Amino acid sequence: MPRIAVNVDGIRYEEEVEPRLLLVHLLRDRLGKTGTPIGCDTTNCGACTVLMDGKSVKSCSVLAVQADGCDIVTIEGLGTDGRWHPMQQAFHEEHALQCGYCTPGMIMAAIDLLRENPDPSEDEIRAGLEGNLCRCTGYCNIVRAVRRGAQAMSGQEVKAS
Ligand code: FES
Ligand code: FES
User: How far is the C-alpha of 64 from the C-alpha of 21, rounded, in Å?
Assistant: First the structure.
């Protein structure tokens, strides 16, 4: 079996993996990263989104062997020193979740969106998160949370929404 080395949330792992093993199963079943959920078997929900070398990917559509040598960040690796990442804080403050199943993927996708566009409009946020489905919230608070997260991450004063 192929042997891969991958950094996940700042820790290096070396694993023997079957060539067909999906990254999401490596994360959840082998490394215990159950904060990354699986929401579908058709690669369309986005719940499993993680950052791979800084770019968001649906980890159910990536083979573990493709992550060899990569840096992976999951929702569990975002906070620092016991504090939430500003985007996690923004989702909390804007009540941008109900069941929370989509939330890890939404937050990871939002962070990648801001990497390319630090000050997105509402329409740009909706377009940027089109690969992430939420069955509970109706998206309005999610969009507000991403706006708030963008303000916090850019050091702007966070405006009440
Ligand atoms: S579980 Fe990966 S897109 Fe749905
Ligand atoms: S909060 Fe339930 S799916 Fe989004």
Answer: 6
In total, the chain counts a number of residues equal to 161
Q: What is the CATH number of domain 3-75?
A: 3.10.20.30
Distance of CA 132 from the midpoint of ligand 1 (Å): 9
Tell me what percent of the residues of the chain surpass a pLDDT of 90: 93
- Domain 86-153 belongs in CATH node 1.10.150.120: yes
CA 118 to each of CA 1, 128, 135, 137, 161: distance values in angstroms, whole numbers, following the listed order: 41, 12, 26, 24, 18
Domain range annotation of the chain? 3-75, 86-153
Q: Is the CB of 102 under 6 A from ligand 2?
A: yes
Q: Express each pLDDT in 121-142 by its tens digit.
A: 999 999 999 999 999 999 999 9
Note whether 119 and 102 are within 8 A (CB).
no
Single pTM value for the model: 0.96
